[in-house]
Structures are given as C-alpha cells and as structure tokens.
Amino acid sequence: MKTLKKITFVMVLALGSSAVNAQQAPMYTHYMYNTLSINPGYAGSRDALTITALHRSQWVDFKGAPLTQTLTVHSPLYNEHIGVGLSVLNDKIGPSNNTAVFVDYAYIMKLNEKSKLALGLSAGADIYRASLSSLDLDQQSDPVFLSNINNHVTPNFGLGAYYSRERFYAGVSVPKLLQNNYSSIKQINGNTLIGKEQRHYFFIAGAMLKITNNLAFKPTTFIKVTSAAPVQADLTGSFIIMKKLLVGAMFRTGDAVGGLVGLDITEQLHLGYSYDWSYGLKTFKYNQGSHELVLRYDFIFFNKKQIHSPRNF
Fold first, then answer.
1. What is the spatial distance between Cα 114 and Cα 109, in angstroms, rounded to a whole number?
2. Each residue of 114-155: pLDDT tens digit?
C-alpha cells in the first residue's frame, strides 16, 4: 500500500490533471551547465561547438523516482549573429516516460564591445508513453489506470532571450508554449480526468566575482513559475579555485539543499557532480537524496581569441 501511494504521488507530479497542476519540468542542479535545455537563446553563446551530457537520479531508493538524461549540442555559425542547437531529453517517472527532441535557433545581437543579447526559438516534439496497466492496484477497475498511453506525440515550440557579458548573464524563457493534453479519461463519477502539460516560465541569472587571481565566487539562480504551483527558486553559490576546481552549495526553495563539485580537466572538458537532499516533501523519509553528473566538451573554437579568454558561462 505504501509503495502504491509513492507511485501514485509521482504519477500526479508527472501527468497533472484538471484538479492538480504540478511542476512537470525536470529538475537540474547543474542548470548553469545545462542552459540550452532551459533557454534556446543560449545556442552558440560559447563561440564553440559544445556538447553537454547530463544524468540525474532523483530520490534514490524511492520506487518509481525520476530518472532524467539530457544531451545538448550547439554552435555558432560562421555568421557570428546566428547560433543553432539540438536538445534531447529523456525523463522517466514511475511507469511513464517522456522523450523530447527540439531544434534551437538564436539570433545574436552585439549591443556593445562587452555585451550581447540573443533571441531564441525552439521547435520540436514530445513522445509520451505510460504503462499504467502494469501497476499493481488495490482497485483493479480504476479507470484512470486501465489504458496505456503509447507513443503520444505532441509538437511544441518555445521562446527565450539571453543577455550575456564576460562576467554576467540573465535570461527569460518559455520552453514550451503549447499546453498539450496527454490523455482524457472518463471517471466513474462522470468527471473527466485530463493529463495536461503546464506552461512554465523560467528566469536564470549568474555572475562571476573575482576575489583574488586564484579565487572567484560564482552565484547563480534559476526561478521557475507555473500556474497553480508555488514559485520555485534554485540559489547556488560556487567558489572557483585556481580557475579549475569548483566547490559550491545549492538551495532549492521548498525542496532540497545540496553541494556541487566540478573540475576543468582541460580547457575544453568540464566534469561536474552534485548531491542534493530533499527536505520539503514527504518523500525525504523514503529516499537517499539525488545524484547528478554533467560532462561538457568544447570541440571546435570559432573565435581564436576565445581560447585564451575565460568562458565563464
């Protein structure tokens, strides 16, 4: 019975309904390295062909807990005003699985010698699957869980704006503008339960503050807003030591606290790990925290001067 309650709780978060509108977007502790998944205006911002891979195991030892993988590729074109990218997401929660593939485009405007503003557009589709009939239920006749959802494809598109300087960035975005329906189920009481995707509004910002030649402080934030759910904010502070080693802490309102470590193995390769511990949800009684791993590699530099100057974001 406890296991069923856990799975049902996760399913509510994943599917949403006419009565419950939860935050459905995947969580990222390394949002500052996974920026293209959040804002299409980030495409091409590193003056390099950049590939970033991320894996998140959320709520370890909690049956049916989220598992998330993302892969992003982006690059400027030889025209310095155009950036393009590709974002792939796989998000599994309990018996449900969502795969999303989006193409990203950014138009980059140089405001002055030190700052840029990029306007981004993304377009793609989600492929949603849910094996609801595989659940072990107390009431086998529950109509909500009788029918599976098989490869339900929903197109979508998003918008974003990304402002950047050498030591500061800020962005706003709506990654998915369309609020598509996943399912519509007629209940015994005559009401209709609708699995609906909610529109999310994101704000990101970060800075790099020099303390000494070998020590810098990097504060960042990621704020998420959606209908009928509390505003959620990630607040992260990291120290950069010897321009190679990152050590930081994070706080997510109403949800988790944790720590991050990262290492620039070379000028082109960054490896990062984070652990966060839930404190705000009842799930903390049943899980051993969340682990996240990120790997980023800059393959080709298009601006030769950029090789010798810091790429802080």
1. 12
2. 999 999 999 999 998 876 655 555 555 555 555 666 778 899
